[in-house]
Amino acid sequence: MIRAISFSHTSSPEDEIQLLTAGQMKDKIGFVPQNDYLLPNLTVRETLHYAAELRLPSTIDRQTRTAIVNQTLEELGLTDAADTVIGGFGNIRKGISGGERRRVTIACILVALPSVIVLDEPTSGLDAFTASIPGAYIHIADLPQAYQLLLTLSELAKRSRTVILSLHQPRSDAFALFTRLLVLSKGSVVYSGLTSRCLPWFASHGLEPDVGVNPLDFLIDISSIEIGDDDKHEASQARLYRLVAAWKENGAAYTAEPMTGAEKVAVSKEGVATRPTSERTLNRPGYLSQVATLTARASKNNLRNHSQTIGYALQAIIIGVMLGLSYFRLGETPADIQSLKTLCFQHLPAYFYLTMVYSIYRYCHELVVFDRESADHLYKAAPWVVSEFVSSLPLNVIFSMLFTVIMYFMAGLRVDSLAQNLFTLIGNSILVQLGSVGFALLSASLVRPFESASLVANGLSIFLLLATGYVLIHIPVYVRWIRYISVYWYGFRIVTISQFRGRRFACEGVSGIAANQCVGDRVLTGLNISASDSLWRYFVPLLGIVVALNVLAAVILTFWKPGGVKHAGRPGSSGKEVIIDSDMDIARQRVNVTVNQVSLTWSRPRFFILQPTRKEILANISFTCPSGQITAIMGPSGAGKSSLLQLLAARSMNAGPFARFERNGNILFNGKTFSRADSNMVSFVQQDDDYHLPALTVRETLRYAAILRLPHTMSKRSKLGRAEEMIRMFGLNDCANTLVGGPLLKGISGGEKRRLSLAVEMLNDPAVLIVGASSDLLNIYELIRVDEVTSGLDAATAHNVMLRLKAISESGRTVMRGIIIGPFSLDTVTLHQPRSDIYHLLDNVIVLAKGGRTVYAGLRKQVESTFASQGYTIPAYFNPADFLLDVVSIDSRPLYEGQSRERVGKLVSYWKSEEEKRGHVEGGNTMDENGHPEPVIVQEDRLTPMWIAVPVLLERTLRNMWRQQSRLIVAHVVFWVRLQQAPLSAALFLLFFQRLSKGPSGGQDRIGYFQQLVGSMPFLGLFSSVAIFPAERDVFFHEYRSSAAYSTATFIIVTTLVETPFTFVANILFALFTNLVAGLTTSPRIFFEFAFSTFAMQSFGESVGIIFATFTPSMGLSTFLVSTVISVMMQFSGLTSLSVPKWLQAIAWSTAVKPGIRLLVINEASGLHLNCPPDTIASGECLVQDGSDLIDLFGWKDLDRTKLVLIIAGLCVGWRVLSWMLLMVQMRGW
């Protein structure tokens, strides 16, 4: 609804009304989306400063812009965080909180002072403490961030600004701020008109709010359909239909009122009315000003991206050193000369291809910001591309030079005319680097998801690399044109001419055909390169290609807008039957949870330039969660609620690099110290719902979860019956057969996904239920990346769900939950305040202040008296939850911070004295029927047996993959990824190689052919892993920590079983093209050995991808690391370089690449005979004459092919076993 709003009324005298086109009107609209799109390494002040420079008219001077920025910072309570970086980008740098990011997003729009402001959930994540509490202890100016924002918007509306916003259950004190209300339910209008006439309209239909009830809560309740009880469901549905019908029939007449001349506006496709003032033409900065501003912004963002800088440096050093070792101090023998030829080519993909992979990852993130800002018409694509090029130029130049210098001197390249040759190579490296980065930008411009963009780039890179003229000397005419657009073709020729022209090698004792390699000009002839070519003939076009790639990217960014989501439907009738009966019989137990003097501190010791740091998260917290009761943990942002819940669930927490958590105190379950081994008793609804597989329905998700979570002694029918029971309990009937959905597949709503997460955790009827921070069921309407027009439905659902939790707790379960006011994030999460009717369903309340300090811990019924004794009386008709959070929150604005800190300090001291009086934590063991402490019953088998888990996981994974391709999700057609990539790559190879020649160039062609084939296979495995493994990993990580746990061995077996058939079939097809069709030596044995070798190398790449993805949550970082490892291993394989030191050759035997290459070459050499006329032998064009010459060139003695096959098989299995072992280490926290 919000996104559909394009125009609005403006107030102006009727005689001044003129028409603006839709494009001009967009410049007057400021839209604040739900998500935050910000550069991570800029401070808050810098972000607003650059937003002001881009959004405000160029006629406004710097001093005025600065004043506007400072005023906006103050209005939104961002002064304290003004000089803190935004953070984010894979959680590498934390930065400001999620709520502060929300305010920064709003501030970026407000600095432009737009005529129309459209906001989608602007108060999400804002602290909610209010000014409605008596001024005796909270200053009258100590306004809540959410309320203060609404007041700011209200003031803007009074200054002839039109403000349109969507909210999910705002507080009652905000009701009077709204001039008009639009109440929606399931897309239908329930009311639309003046706020003052809203309640009378519903009163005329027999619906009036009770005294003291938030009018907005009332509106949401009557516009919602209740879940659970059939009678209430039907009654609420009938009421809603009646209200919708009444509005359709009489609503327009009810709100009809005469329009003044100032309100009459002409709205049409041609134009929109507005005032013909100087504001009409928004004179935003021109191209040069945009370039200057964007370049300054991007330069700061890149300069502060320390992980990126370190990554570039490590890449340059590691690849440079590895290439230097692989080609260490090349001599002047024929083998060394062949290695030098290979190095001239191999250094291009070894370094610059990896740079391209990381650049794609970076641009896929940064283009999200570009898409958002370009939608606001802040700047054109061309200035942005120029700014990116200029800002990243220092990194590209410095580290390209570093790589080149390391490789040049370690490999012992040409020393005569050293300066000329060295700087020729450096200049070439810089231009190839810039071309690779430009190609990365071009790929990311076509598709935004990293997986898809990297696949596009990989496919196109094959063309560009094959066109260089090294892998294949004589390129077919119909693809020969590709070399003129390949930076690698120009780069290879520049380096080769520089190293060989006019050079004569010693070659002591060498004679015959091998002596032809000792003359540099003849080497160039063999490569079909003219020794008389001037280098400028290649440098100038190379520079032109760099410019052309960036220009083409700018054109694509201007006219092509990728993105959007597919809407999920119902996949079919399968699974729609309802199984009612369930004979579930799980031993129930009553568990008291006691937290005794628990403290948690984050610390980081001194490390190089990092100073030692300590931060107290929890400060000696003590409380009891009695069995059969609901305990709520409340507190503002930074109170440690989420950390406490993680401890209660025995979840491991990541402290970050070089840091650790220090924990003291005890957590007892019925008097027994709680550990991770007991975690099967606990269900933890974690912060986000992204772990659900997107292409499964709600019913399928619950059924698979039931089979995995419930005891294997239960029948399958009973397990499915339990899943149906959860569907009914949590009101998921209407969406039971709808796909869950994901980022690119819009399925169920955010509120429904919340309830699905809770239903999954409740399947096994846990003894203790912990609802994590962002899973706040009091605020189940909180949505992430979902535009929810039926906001009232989810708010009302929250009350129904809490009633069910209440019933669950009364049956003997211990329910703990965190109620969050304001932002708190493990990821970026936004939440709202709880409703008062839900608050009264709680049994116990723990109130924490910032820093993890206890303000209250005990019965909810004693909260009022405890705070009243300190002089803080809850006003009549005021939400107690709001009151508690008002009192314990700190206003971060400098003027009021000291006063609020003093207030909170007194509250903490008071409760500390109360605890000292009590002397111990009440509660402890639950007593059985005989009055004895009831022991904690721990199930012996926490893990689902492999014989149950493997078939279920196989079916679930294949169904999810198949559904995604059937829904035509272009960016995630994962079902065919493994089956398609290898055959498509083979088809691309055949475009160039056709049937390999048996003429003079046949030897060089085969060497280049095998290098390209073998070099691509591990990367194909890596890209398959990138496209498929992350989603499977996230689901496994979640389920392993929950009652759906299955072993790491089970997960690896299922992953391997899903992968192997597709990969093997793909490699059979790959061998069909690259062995049979290409004209290589073949026989049934050679064919299958060829397919098996390439399969093992692809499997190796996928195993390495699994290993790195296990330890690094960011697949971009994983891809960067794995690409580097694979590239290094390729250099040691013995095919790219014939001069690898012995100890590096030994390391290379640890992968399937080296034995695989050797097997392929030996098989080809067994029947190879080339036709080499005498003149081609004399000129050096003919490298080898038969297979024995080829084997001699590599210097191999052991040609036992059976041994090589066994080694390949062992390594293939070994690397997958290693991935399993490292996964087990990660999951068990060893």
Automatic annotation (TrEMBL):
Ranges annotated as spanning the membrane: 309-328, 348-364, 385-410, 422-443, 455-479, 538-560, 1013-1031, 1043-1062, 1104-1130, 1204-1225
Principal location: membrane
List the keywords (alphabetical): ATP-binding, Membrane, Nucleotide-binding, Transmembrane, Transmembrane helix, Transport
Instruction: Please give the superkingdom of this protein's source.
Output: Eukaryota
The annotated topology with respect to the bilayer is: Multi-pass membrane protein
Check the record and name the PROSITE patterns matching this protein: ABC_TRANSPORTER_1, ABC_TRANSPORTER_2
Q: Which residues form the ABC transporter domain?
A: 595-875
Compartments reported by the entry: Membrane
Q: Give the matching SUPFAM superfamilies.
A: P-loop containing nucleoside triphosphate hydrolases
Q: Which GO terms describe its molecular function?
A: ABC-type transporter activity; ATP binding; ATP hydrolysis activity
Task: Give start-end ranges for the coiled-coil region(s).
Answer: none
Q: Which Pfam families match?
A: ABC2_membrane, ABC2_membrane_7, ABC_tran
One GO term of the cellular component aspect? membrane
Question: Matching InterPro entries, A to Z?
Answer: AAA+_ATPase, ABC2_TM, ABC_transporter-like_ATP-bd, ABC_transporter-like_CS, ABCG_dom, ABCG_transporters, P-loop_NTPase
Recorded hits in PANTHER family, A to Z, give:
ABC TRANSPORTER G FAMILY MEMBER 28, ROA1P
Q: What is this protein called?
A: Related to Similarity to A.gambiae ATP-binding-cassette protein
Instruction: Tell me which species this is from.
Output: Serendipita indica (strain DSM 11827) (Root endophyte fungus)
